[in-house]
Amino acid sequence: MRTIEVTVTYIDELLGTASADPEIHARFIASKAPDAPSRADEVAAIGAEAVEERAMTVFPRTEDGQPFTWDYQWKGFFKDSCGMLRRADGTKSKGLKAYKKEIDGLLFVSPRRIPLVLPDGAEVGSCQRPLRASTPQGERVALANSETVPAGTTQTFQVHMLRDDLEPLVMEWLAYGRLHGKGQWRNSGKGRFTHVAHRVG
């Protein structure tokens, strides 16, 4: 198994993705991540009782209040990145067959909870933006609200690969993070990051 340690530094604010309403969050996990090791742990980690705005998306928190993201969110980022890069000529991702299955079965991220380390003196903020949708009843506009961590926030985690030839692909997906971020509203550039990686195993 090959392992790299990655430190990402966000160059734009990262938005939280967990619903502040524990019932909504539990249903979402049940539908999107039924194999999550502990749904109860994930629901408890959002600290819903401390959040006044139930429509807000938030970051899960450790017991001492530090925001973090889950390991599987990075696997989701890798799948999303690979799916897009497969459409571009000259990328390593273009040649990867059954890429979702490969990422799910041959690539693992640790630790389970990946802390978000904010710059000195920075605090968790919020980002409001309008959401527009065309419905049979006409145009609808709603206000979305998310917790944010600022540019300069870092995360460090390890990526474990059961095949050595996955390493250049992982590096390609991480490099894509400078162009297309992760988290809520990533299509607008939120959650973009730079990275430093080195092999540790």
Task: Kindly list the characteristics that best describe this protein.
5 helices; three-stranded antiparallel beta sheet; 31% strand; 25% helix
Describe this structure in words.
This protein has 5 helices and 11 strands. It has helices spanning 22-32, 39-45, 71-85, 99-106, 167-176, and strands at residues 2-10, 14-15, 18-19, 57-58, 68-70, 107-110, 113-115, 125-135, 138-149, 154-161, 193-199. It has a 4-stranded antiparallel β-sheet. A 3-stranded antiparallel β-sheet has the order 2-9-8, with no helix packed on it. Helix 1 packs antiparallel against helix 2, helix 3 packs antiparallel against helix 4 and helix 3 (71-85) packs across helix 5. The longest helix is centred in the middle third of the chain and has 15 residues, at 71-85.
Multimer state: single chain
The proportion of strand residues reads 25-35%
Strand order in space, largest sheet? 6-10-1-11
Q: Helical element count?
A: 5
Mean pLDDT: 85
Quote the distance from N terminus to C terminus: 7 Å
What does the main sheet amount to?
4 strands, antiparallel
For the secondary structure, the number of strands is 11
